[in-house]
Design goal:
The protein is α+β, with helices and mostly antiparallel strands. It is 30% helix and 30% strand. Strands 1, 2, 3, 7, 8, 9, 10, 11, 12, 18, 21 and 22 form a 12-stranded antiparallel β-sheet that branches. Strand 11 and strand 12 form a beta hairpin. The protein starts with a strand and ends with a helix. 43% of the residues are buried.
Length: 421
């Protein structure tokens, strides 16, 4: 691949806004922003990564898609939806709503601590590439416009049904069917976003996170402010950083008390450790014996609005571990299912009356050298262009001591806090 064109950055925030403005010229694009936030233990690669245009979509069944991604010597961008878990071992082709992987035309890259913007040609003609570069240089940032959500969201699950389901889940936990389940519900509104790009900018400004993403294609626009990493691959090193445990961030010394409270919350600690054990088990299918380590357990990190309890689990990949084998072993992420994973996924399909779709799936990239990074899709607004609606999911871990009323109120609290900004 040819060397990138390099442009000097004098103002990082302005350059990011310019990159976002450039998305308006394309039907398909992926924009990832780390918001100058270091991930736990500094497993970081890019400050900002954006891909534009589409040379080719990666299609087929799961194994065919993974093989194409693995052998591809160009950048690959995209997402996998939660329902992919039903087709990991199937010969059925993945629908567009389950798989959004594609080979972009150009990429704009800002590495961590860099003052240079790199523009990569991902396989188009030199003439078209030069046109895109000139077009980017001339792209202008539009003035801030109304970015509110003039929509009324309603829960797809009535309160009575939610309460009944939590009671039934608790009964199954007591009977030993599973230990914990991540039970989610969908909120939806008819209509579309007036200014999806400006809405994302506002969300990202209010709640900056290290795995934020703005994704646009023919079917939907996705506004993601995720704090959670699913999988990071660096040569033979594989990293997963599940989140379990959250409380509100306060100011100054008061937040030190909040952090201490979260660190000593037995319920949150138990949930986090349970998912860490699940991730260790999943990594064991593709990592060398004795290489799996919990590098950090139940550490609390402050973000703009909340404190999060995060653990870091790593392993060394067995030689010749394929992209397909890695995802088959680890997808979907345990923090969004519960434990044991296979059993709770069966019950998620029973109790949740709406498909999760991209929510609790993953968005990310694969580099030409085979390394990759994928987030966990949470705290995400999805504008469905085909069905003319806007939606988001919220959820939480249900355990044997969960209070159904409180769990429902917590969902409403998360929902109101998410879209009222």
């Amino acid at each position: 691949m040819n060397s990138p064109i390099e442009l000097q950055i004098t103002d990082l925030a302005f350059t990011k806004l310019q990159i976002l403005a450039f998305t308006e010229a394309f039907e398909i694009c992926n924009y990832y922003d780390s918001n100058e936030i270091n991930s736990p233990l500094n497993y970081d690669r890019f400050e900002c990564l954006a891909a534009f245009g589409c040379i080719e979509k990666v299609k087929g069944n799961f194994k065919q898609i993974c093989h194409q991604i693995e052998i591809e010597k160009r950048w690959v961008m995209g997402y996998f939806a939660y329902e992919l878990n039903e087709k990991l071992n199937s010969d059925a082709n993945l629908a567009d709503c389950e798989n959004g992987c594609y080979i972009p035309e150009i990429l704009l890259v800002i590495r961590r601590q860099s003052t240079v913007l790199e523009i990569f040609n991902n396989g188009i003609s030199d003439v078209l590439f030069e046109q895109y570069v000139e077009q980017f240089k001339k792209s202008t940032i539009s003035p801030t416009t109304n970015h509110d959500l003039p929509l009324t969201f309603v829960a797809c699950t009535p309160k009575s049904t939610y309460i009944e389901n939590v009671e039934a889940i608790k009964k199954q936990i007591i009977e030993g069917d599973f230990y914990e389940i991540n039970y989610c519900q969908k909120f939806i509104s008819e209509g579309t976003l007036r200014q999806p790009l400006k809405t994302f900018e506002a969300l990202n400004k209010k709640s900056p996170t290290p795995f934020a993403a703005y994704v646009k294609n023919e079917s939907f626009t996705l506004l993601c402010t995720s704090p959670e990493r699913f999988l990071f691959k660096d040569q033979q090193h594989l990293v997963s950083q599940p989140i379990k445990g959250t409380n509100k961030r306060l100011q100054n010394e008061e937040n030190e008390k909040q952090i201490a409270m979260l660190k000593n919350d037995e319920k949150e600690l138990a949930e986090n450790v349970m998912i860490v054990d699940l991730v260790r088990n999943d990594l064991g299918h593709v990592c060398a014996s004795g290489s799996i380590k919990v590098e950090e357990l139940c550490e609390v990190y402050p973000f703009a609005l909340v404190n999060q309890m995060i653990s870091t689990v790593t392993g060394t990949l067995i030689q010749n571990s394929s992209f397909a084998s890695i995802f088959t072993a680890l997808f979907p992420m345990g923090s969004m299912t519960g434990a044991p994973k296979v059993e709770v996924m069966k019950n998620i399909a029973i109790y949740e009356n709406e498909k999760r779709g991209i929510y609790s799936g993953c968005i990310g990239y694969k580099m030409p050298n085979g390394d990759f990074d994928f987030n966990v899709v949470i705290r995400t607004i999805i504008e469905d262009k085909l069905n003319n609606n806007v939606s988001f999911h919220v959820g939480g871990a249900i355990t044997y001591d969960s209070n159904p009323e409180k769990e429902f109120e917590e969902c409403l609290l998360k929902a109101n806090g998410f879209y009222n900004f």
